[in-house]
Design goal:
Oligomer: homodimer
Shape of chain A: elongated
Distance between the termini of chain A: 74 Å
Structural class of chain A: alpha/beta
Radius of gyration of chain A: 27 Å
Strand content of chain A: 5-15%
Number of helices of chain A: 14
Order of helices and strands of chain A: HHHHHEHEHEHEEHEHEHEHEHEHEE
DNA sequence: CTGAAAGCGCTTACAG
DNA sequence: CTGAAAGCGCTTACAG
């Protein structure tokens, strides 16, 4: 076997290996019994320390903590889970085609889970499959999940939420609107954010504005369209019905919707697409029709996906703090170390912001 | 509490609930003891059936299978794991900024895991962090992972592979080149694929071709550049050194590299970027310089990311079967039901293909 | 505040 | 081919 290079990389800590040997575990991982023996207490008392029971004398706790620290002991999650009848796994359940969104949420969830002893298990699913609900139930019950994070659009599914309550599984919904009064949620104010976009376009001087809405099954689609039109109305600008078209949050639907809007006369001087994918479709349609962006058409999207900066010109859009949302969601599910970090609120709101780039400017004349 | 809508969605199977009641488990999940009692055998024999031991009489097995089926019993992974000293979790370990790649791999891994009783735990990490190796070891040892899938670039890290062998954790590497003779791997022939791209551009008539390579820490960067230049050489076209620039697989580096290449005289008539992110950077640079794609500049990328079709004109690029790669990787880690599905090969190769779109055409004159 | 016993749901030797 | 005992590493009542 070839010699392995080790330079420039920290390997295992040799001290901990030595200590394990010193404690005569010879290679074996330490158990609660080892800690109990070394600290001269019963395993039950060690268990109390692990589980932060208040009924342990400070001196005893300190002694046990020292041994745990020294040995580098960590309780076995499977054994603990078996005794607790509950695992130390958090599930991420989603039916969402946006990869960047998924990965950002995952990163956020893992931010919260780091050091907590919990791990993240992913479970994509298909709302249209007849095994949708049973599949999720099997997953949760079999793994005895400690809790789950639900992403839109299935976070909006009341039947799912009801099923989770039935099997007594705690959950956090990520959504753009409050769905009930009891479910813990991370809420994005999509409505306010699209209002900001509307105000921005109006302030630039746009009056003939096209709107590409999302599919009506998504609550966000409704929120975004409503926020946009309401803010414009408040400034005295009305979007006529023929300037509002319904897309599917996909690139292709964006192309088709933009082609429809750009065929209207007078042509819109700006288009707000309710996500970046559809905004990219507007670029495509404008290119085909030889309508330069932003000179003859301003475009605003929603998501601030990587696409937004890759497009030329770069896309003015709305940024969601997705990673934060993942972190906040997971924080609601796990017990925290520092009591001041506890997030007991049922609903946590996050703020979105308009990011102005190169795809928007005042209309020509 | 409001009545839950149930129309149009299949809920839990009422039969199984009834059966659980009939078996007098009153709400409690069935255990191996219940199955043993109902089938009139010892729990050990049930265990043998669960673990597919050959030493069970066919009639006994059939009887037990019937009860398992009827009750809807599934063994508790935590209890099983505790007894086995090993979990039923597969880890996905990566340090990769490409969200679409991650999600596609995840989907593929889950394809393979479906119905196997294994679940996927994700573990992004940072190769440059001093806790990189210790962090991965802790993760694997604490969770007693059944195996892990490693994605590039950390799949190429020999120190990591060595550490995994030390802790006796099986792993599968996803890579673009064979890294040793023993590690199980999923191999992409990046070299062959970029050769295909080179042949394509040469056949179109391009002779002044620029190459934006990847960062040298990535093996794929080397493979892609080598495959491209070698294939061109074989057709009598040499890329002069000033027409090869090194990018970082990022959009910004693509912009910078393209600006450098497009400042050369005579200007290249085609640029091959070693990934789509950098190809998008070429679009940006060309736009700034008012060089129309594909009329005055053909562009070819690598990845077939979503970006490829969102860009205008759509990007000619190389498609990797990422989801398949994930599925194949996971298949090497888990025991399979049907013996004919077993993948015992150490190395499995997948094939990449050039996808011709609108960003490439013959050079002008 | 601390401990000895029993149990979580499974498996591994060891018998027969 | 099948089973009774002991154990995986933890926790929950129950005592003291």
């Amino acid at each position: 076997m070839p010699k392995t290079r080790t330079s420039g990389t920290r390997g295992t800590t040799p001290e901990s290996a030595a200590l394990k040997g010193a404690a005569s575990l010879n290679g074996r991982r330490a158990t609660i019994n080892d800690i109990a023996r070394l600290a001269n207490v019963s395993k039950k008392t060690v268990s109390r320390v692990i589980n932060q029971s208040p009924f342990v004398k400070d001196a005893t706790r300190a002694k046990i903590d020292a041994v745990i620290q020294q040995i580098g002991y960590a309780p076995d999650p499977q054994a603990r889970g078996l005794a607790f009848r509950r695992s130390f796994l958090i599930g991420l359940i989603y039916d969402n085609p946006n990869a960047q969104y998924i990965v950002n949420i995952q990163d956020g969830v893992l931010d919260a889970l780091r050091g907590s002893g919990f791990e993240l298990v992913v479970h994509p699913c298909d709302r249209l499959n007849e095994d949708f609900l049973p599949g999720i139930r099997r997953f949760i019950e079999r793994q005895k999940l400690h809790g789950v994070v639900l992403l839109p659009p299935i976070s909006e599914d009341q039947t799912l939420a009801q099923a989770l309550r039935e099997i007594d599984c705690q959950y956090v919904r990520v959504a753009s609107v409050r769905l009930d009064n009891t479910s813990r949620s991370i809420l994005c104010n999509d409505r306010e954010a699209t209002g900001e976009a509307a105000n921005y376009l109006e302030a630039l001087g746009h009056r003939r504005i096209g709107l590409i809405a999302g599919p009506p099954q998504y609550r966000s689609a409704h929120e975004r369209a409503l926020g946009f039109t309401t803010a414009l109305e408040a400034r005295g600008v009305t979007i006529p019905p023929e300037m509002i078209v319904e897309g599917a949050y996909t690139f292709d639907s964006g192309v088709a919707c933009a082609e429809a809007l750009l065929a209207r006369r007078p042509r819109p001087t700006a288009i707000f697409a309710c996500n970046d994918e559809m905004a990219a479709g507007v670029y495509k349609a404008a290119y085909r029709l030889k309508i330069p962006i932003p000179e003859e058409l301003s475009v605003v999207g929603f998501d601030d996906s990587p696409l937004a900066t890759r497009l030329t010109p770069s896309l003015t859009t709305i940024r969601m703090p997705i990673r934060d949302m993942g972190r906040l969601a997971a924080s609601k599910l796990i017990p925290v170390k520092a009591p001041d970090e506890v997030d007991t609120a049922v609903v946590t709101r996050v703020t979105l912001h308009l990011i102005v780039r190169d795809s928007s400017q005042p209309p020509k004349s």
